[in-house]
Amino acid sequence: WVARARATASGRRSFDDAIACFVEAHRAHVAAGDMRSAAQIGLYLGSFYTWSGAWEQAGESIEDALRVAGRLGADYLTLWGRYVRGKLEVETEPYEKASATLEAVAARGVSSPRIRAGALVFGAVAAQRVGRFDVAESWARSALALEPALVVMRAGSAALCRALLAQRRVGEAVLLEPALALRPELGAISEL
User: What is the DSSP string of 20-48?
Assistant: First the structure.
């Protein structure tokens, strides 16, 4: 659990540091026989690997975590794993596949507004990448309506702003400025 806490704290500073700490935490949970926590850490790793462009490692972590979640009958971890797989697919697969995965997660994510909202935000990103800005706007607005967590509000507002700007709706996009303001107290990730 100490490695897990270090991973969470280091994730605000550096992807590399966070990944190293999450790998350590994953090994510790496996060694302790705590497979539920190991699967959870595997999903964190899947996200960090995706964000850092280590897509092969992301896929391996996600699939391993999904196998463990399936054996445990852990529906929440399975939903979370499918969500993380959807994030990876936004980066590595055609729009149709990524959006279908994320749409399925959003439809099944009723018990987790944060996962549902996250799937909608990543769906908006996927739609933007193929120029479907009306769809991106719809996904982003749906995400913002679901979850008031800061991370969702900022990411959802950014996705909505980009979709509005692409549609030349500058006046509406400007209204999102307060939600997009930099928050220096949150720190920065060095790779960005």
Answer: HHHHHHHHHHHHTT-HHHHHHHHHHHHHH
DSSP conformational letter for 9: H
Phi-psi region of 33 (alpha: psi -120 to 50; beta: other; left: phi over 0): left
pLDDT in tens, 61-102: 999 999 999 999 999 999 999 999 999 999 999 999 999 999
The pLDDT score that the predictor gives to residue 189 is: 42
pTM score: 0.86
Cα–chain center distance at 158: 14
DSSP string, 50-115: HHHT-HHHHHHHHHHHHHHHHHHT-HHHHHHHHHHHHHHHHHHS-HHHHHHHHHHHHHHGGG-HHH
At residue 5 the predicted structure's pLDDT band, cuts being 50, 70 and 90, is: low
The span from the CA of 120 to the CA of 156, in Å, is 8
